[in-house]
Amino acid sequence: MVSRCSECSARVRPIVAVDIDGTLAEYHKHLGDHICRYFGMEWKQHPIYDPWDGEGNYEDYFGITQAQYREAKLAFRQGGFKRWAPVMPGVAALRHTLTGLKQTHDLEVWVTTTRPWNRLDSTDPDTRHWLDRHFPLYDHLLYDDNKYERLAEIVDRDRVVAVVDDLPEMWAQAARVFGHSKAFMVERPHNEWFIQSAPYFDHDYPGERIDLANFGAKVLIALVDNGWERVA
Ligand SMILES: [Mg+2]
Hints:
Shape: globular
CATH topology of the largest domain: Rossmann fold
Helix content: 40-55%
CATH architecture of the largest domain: 3-Layer(aba) Sandwich
Order of helices and strands: EHHHHHEHEHEHEHH
Bound molecules: magnesium ion
Number of helices: 10
CATH superfamily of the largest domain: HAD superfamily/HAD-like
């Protein structure tokens, strides 16, 4: 299928959506480390020894209140992490595959995040700085608390062939908006609980979590399955 816009005859491109925090960039390990140091917790409580598996609220895992959690998280956000966040394993392989699919299938890459761009002046420039260094192939950057619902408002949802995210609630939103077959969950310690606690969100998780390095192959399969032909 090579679709064209009925208004301008421009070729309609397939879309892949990729999350940042916890998917492309390390997040929970450093936020957890920050929270422990912020409140002077004992080392035995440090997440490096017993990573959070995603069950319950993150603040309960540390034994702090929601107000304390929000205070520490705000301090963390103000600390420049969005520039120096370490790159997750598999990003280089994903970049390589998606760069190839941009050429062969005219794939459009959206980076979709719930980062609060309008509440911290540094969020947008620091996010773009990080992406330019580590994921420069992206075409669009979308900020929204309900990012996949918002994406479906901006573009024809049939154009979206695959989405990858680390958070169960965001994966569920992508599955609801675009269909289960298009929503992938990247394998992380903090979503272990989700996998082992089916049913969740009133349905069973339909597939395995994936290694980020394998997501590019899933995108290629999705392009073929959804009838998007090679253009080069
Ligand atoms: Mg995330």
